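INTERNAL AUDIT FORM
Audit reference: QA-55
Scope: verify that the stored structure record matches its stored sequence.
Auditor: D.O.
Record contents follow.
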Amino acid sequence: MEILIITGLSGSGKSRAASYLEDAGYYTVDNLPSEMMMKFAEFCAASSGRYNRVALVYDVRAGEPFEKLIDVLERMKSDGKNCRMLFLEASTETIIHRYKETRRMHPLMTGGISVAEAVEKERVLMQPVRDHADFVLDSTNFSTAKLRSELLNLFDSHGSKGGLNINILSFGFKYGIPMEADLVFDVRFLPNPYYIDILKPKTGLDQEVHDFIFSFPQAKEFVRLLEKMMDFLLPNYSEEGKTVLVIAIGCTGGHHRSVAIAHDLADYVAKAGYQVTENHRDMSRG
């Protein structure tokens, strides 16, 4: 079981970081006091693998001495638990700007002190925690996409290429273009197996249909260029922070050409290390 404690300065991006890690498969709990972390870890360990990756958000709202968090962290490590701590920070100017945008009050703004004074007070209070962190990220110049990318590079061990999940979908144009599609490719220029009597009742998942389609040089060249385009596009989509990409391949009825091309593309993208879902919307219609 892996436990990641997310802490740091208020306004540094802890909640957003937790949501990104949730997308990567972590079970996240916000604002958990340190005294409950040990019990929660024991509960997760007894869950038969249901909670193998846990991210716990801890900050000044817990209202307890930060030494307790350090003590719990050391106790979990000494017990052999895979427990690490991420500390997020940002410049005072950046945090002030973020609080102005959200119109929220800094949790340490008591007694009439300013946001800047509250930030500096928290920075001093949290220094011992920062000193014990396994990872420190300064989010001052991070876009949301950059923060997500950094977190997934550090903590996404599932080889999902930055958390980008790809749905490759075949369809028939006569039934309409899928509304959820991000990219649409039209393969109606390829010779149609529909007009071959022995192939008509089959689908693009049948070897005979696949062999027929790929016996034509235009099919091979199209797939070569499509794979080259994926090599360029997918890392850039991932870097930009996109989590789901739907690639739709269409032919007339969605039975033969689109199915064969989509199936080959799904295999190629999966071998490149991405998480892929393959669907054939209209293959069984008509």
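Auditor finding: record pair retrieved intact. The mean pLDDT is 89.
Action required: none
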